[in-house]
Amino acid sequence: MTRLLHTMIRVFDLDKSIDFYTRLLGMKLLRRKDYTEGRFTLAFVGYGDEVDHTVIELTHNWDQNEPYSLGSAFGHLAIGSKNIYEMCASLSKAGVKIPRPPGPMKHGGSEIAFIEDPDGYRIELIQRD
Fold first, then answer.
1. pLDDT tens digits, residue range 49-58?
2. CA 127, 48, 88, 75 torsion: positive or negative?
3. Of 116, 25, 114, nearest in space to 70 by CA
4. CB count, 10 Å around CB of 120?
5. In this predicted model, what pLDDT tens digit does every residue of 68-82 receive, in sequence order?
6. Which residues are catalytic?
7. Main-chain phi, psi angles of 91, to 5 degrees
8. Number of Cβ within a 10 Å radius of residue 102
9. Which end of the chain is more exposed for a tag (fewer CB within 10 A), N or C?
10. Residue 15: is it exposed, middle or buried by C-beta count within 10 angstroms (0-12/13-18/19+)?
11. How much is the pTM?
């Protein structure tokens, strides 16, 4: 069987990112490992075990002295939620940036919102019933 295993993003402050994805978005820290010779740490977060769920690999390079430039090629991650309105209200109270509040897509279709993680990566929230 072929399937998508994970998406990797580089993060500047690993603890802040783990807190964002676990405490604020409800994912679990699945594993974390330091690679001392390579001077980096990998942490995997997700909503379920890697055996049958796609997860996010957070890569923290120890010698990175400033936040990463996100460039223009990467778009966003997407997460389905039963109530993006309540989720955004809770995230807003926690200080999360919400550049696109919840509501219907401009040209019809799903109800969506966009939030940003501590590094500025965009995450689309999609209303799922």
1. 999 999 999 9
2. negative
3. 116
4. 13
5. 999 988 999 999 999
6. 124
7. -65, -40
8. 20
9. N
10. exposed
11. 0.92
Strands 40-46 and 55-61: antiparallel
* Tokens 């796609």, residue located: 54
DSSP secondary structure letter of residue 79: E
Residue 8, token pair as written in the block: 């990797």
Q: Which residues pair with 96 in a beta bridge?
A: none
119 DSSP assignment: T
State the amino acid at position 86 in one-letter form.
E
Q: How far apart are CA 74 and CA 121, in angstroms?
A: 9
